[in-house]
Structures are given as C-alpha cells and as structure tokens.
Amino acid sequence: MLKPKTLSYWIAGMILYLTMLLFSCTNSLEPDIEDIVELEPLEGEARNIVLHVYDSDSRYFLGELELNTEGSITISYEPLDEYFIYASAEGFFTEIYYCNKGESIDVDLDSCPQFRNTISSSIFVIEPKYTEDAYGYYPDHPYAELPIIAQLPNGNEYRTQTDEQGRFCLGNLPDGIIDIRMQYGDISRTISMESRPEGYYDDYQLYNGAVSYAPNIYLYPDKEMDVDLKLIFPRGGYVIKSEPEYNNGWSVHVTPDGLIDGKYPYLFYESALPSIDNSETGWIFESENLRSGLTELLSGHGFRGHEIDDFLEFWLPILNRAPCYAFYPQDIEQLTILDIQPFPATIIRFHLYVEPLQSYRSLDEPPHIYIPERNGFTVVEWGVIGSPDLVPSER
Fold first, then answer.
1. 383, β-bridge pairs
2. What is the average pLDDT across 326-342?
3. Distance between CA atoms of residues 91 and 112, nearest Å
C-alpha cells in the first residue's frame, strides 16, 4: 500500500501525464470547419503607405504616391478629372478611395488581426464598360458583402461573406492550401491562399468579364466559294486581335479543303466579353491528364484530326501552371453569334470557360448535346474563354 505522501506524488504525476497526453492529442488534430474563427479588422496606425492612382474611366495607371503615416493627401493629375486610388501598407488591409481632381482623401487603414493560421484579403472588382462604339471601365470597387467559400485541404467547405469593404479574415485554419471561391454575376473565380502559423495576406482583383482566347473558325465549303462572316456580340464585346484582319467582318475566298485566301487554315480571333454563360457544370482534368482528357472531349463533340491537334498545340503549353483545370462548356450563341453568308448547312461550335484549380474537386457533368453530322458547307469552331490572366502576355 502506498504511503500518503507517495500517493499524492503519484496522483500529481498521473494528472500531469494525462494533461500532457490530452494536450498532445488535441494539438495533433487539424482544425476543421467548426474550429474556424472569423476575425474583424482592427484599428491601427499604418506607416509607409503606398497610393496607386488610376483614371476612373480608362483605368489608366497615373502614378504612385507615398504617405509616411495616415492622414490627408490631395490628388491631381492633368488633364484627367476623376480618380480611384488603392492605399496599401504592410500588415494592413488595402482600401480604395475616390476623388475628383484637386480634392483630398483621408487615408485611414485597418490592420490585419494576428491569430494562429489566418488568411486575410481585400477583394476588388474590375468591371469593363461596353457601348456600341467604344469600351472602357467603371471605377474599381470592393467585392462588398458577397459570398466566399473556403475549401480546406480535407475538402470540407466553410461559407461566409466579405464585409462592406470587400475584406475577410479567417483564423485557426489547418496548415496547407485553402481555395477561396467567389461568384460575381456570371463569373466564378478561385484563388489559392496558404494557411501557415504566421498568417497570410494578399489582395485580389476579380475581373468581371472574360477574354475569348484563340477561337479558330474552320470553313469547309462543298465547292470553292466566297464567304462573308461577321461576329455579333449580343451581350456586348469587341474583337481584340484577328488573323486575317477582321475589319468589321471577313470577306474571304475558301476552297473545299478549308484553305482561306490561299494561305490561312482557319479564321483566328480573340475578343473581350462582359460575362460567361456557365460556371456550374463541366469537367475537371489534372494537368498530367490534359492531353488525353481534352482529346477525348473534343472528339466527343465533333472535332477531327488537325482541329484537335491545333487546339492541343496552342493550349497544352499554356495550361501548365496549376495542378488541375476546370472546363465549363458555354452556350456560345449567348455570347458570340456567327453571321455567315452563304449560310452553312452544318455548324459545330464548342467553347470552354477554363478555370485553374489548386486541387481536384467534384463537378457535375453538363447534359449531353446533339452533335450534327457534317453535310454540305460546314463551319467548325473551338475556343477557350478565361480571365485576362489565363494566358501569359508574353506568349
């Protein structure tokens, strides 16, 4: 039988052992969605503030200003009259301000909370403005009080929303990559942020629009003929580049083997679009399976031989910067209409909105669409739609 003093030591030792064991077990479990903490921006005094000034109409970058500490500053750039200004500082949320020429803005930033494994961001929207004869931009604005979905490394999802200034901060997250999904109008975007003990902050700009990259239009007349083709953008849009030159429409001579004006295998163009049609159903391929997956996808939608080869030759070197890519088929007639004279007997069009992903996730497949048989004068078109940063500018 233990003596009272020995017994008390033994009990204290057991309590300490059990406490340490419980602490060890608790800390060995990765936090899950029920452990996530939503944190509010904090008051603070930012220093070494950098201001980036843009023209409100063209989104043209006008210049960079600096403030040693928070306070008032006058903005004036000749000959432009209206501006929006991004103000940022280390450890603080970026904010956006607006003013006219000669007016002052009062810069007052909020600091990012310090908490275990936080991710924080200020999200802003870039919004193009379309008219019948010109295009420009609305002033950038916060992604304010809108939903975000945080997907954890284990696949579980945490849903919340940004505040009135487009900010969010989530703490007590598991280590690893957190995918943040956003939806603005027709456009869906995913950004990846790294959860780590010291915290992570980054700004993000959500472009509310898309670029139709490298559509190829193949023309296969049943006899040698002249063809007129115009692009119509029912929701707005415009041609960025083309080959041969678009010039408000193509007037070309085509032979039955598809050769255009004696030298072009297809009509090439790229266009800016204000929206997309679908970001809910589609297919996801891991990068190492892109060639086989896209070949099967294109073949199943009516494409042949060199049409598939052209697609793979252009896109495989570009789609190599993410572990996975999602492909969402578009009802392209809602975005771009082909006005063709003489009118073809067969038209096959397949456009995919592409979204880079940091991890694989499930996605409902779209309903099967009817693929017509090629008879008579046939027009075939493939294209990829994406955000402006999908394709590197140096390509």
1. 351
2. 94
3. 6
d(CA 382, CA 377): 17
Q: pLDDT (tens digit, 9 = 90+) per residue, 92-111? A: 999 999 999 999 999 999 99
| pLDDT single digits (tens) 114-164 | 888 999 999 999 887 765 555 677 899 999 999 999 999 988 999 999 999
Nearest to residue 210, comparing CAs of 23, 383, 6, 7?
383
Which secondary structure element, helix H or strand E, spans residue 349, and what is its range?
Answer: strand 346-357
Rounded Cα distance, 126 and 50, in Å: 20
Strands (E), 20-76: 37-38, 42-43, 47-55, 61-69, 71-74
DSSP code for 323: S
pLDDT at residue 344 above 90?
Answer: yes
Instruction: Give whole-number Cα distances, 236 to 26, 130, 250, in Å.
Output: 55, 6, 19
E-strand stretches of 145-222: 147-151, 157-161, 167-171, 176-184, 187-195, 200-207, 210-220
| Whole-angstrom distance, CA of residue 18 vs CA of residue 267 | 74
CB 218 within 8 A of CB 307: yes
Find the radius of gyration of the CA atoms of the chain. Answer: 27
Amino acid present at 75: I
- Domains of the chain, first to last: 37-207 (2.60.40.10), 210-386 (no CATH)
Q: SS3 of 340, please? A: strand
Residue 209 DSSP label: S
pTM for the predicted model, two decimal places? 0.63
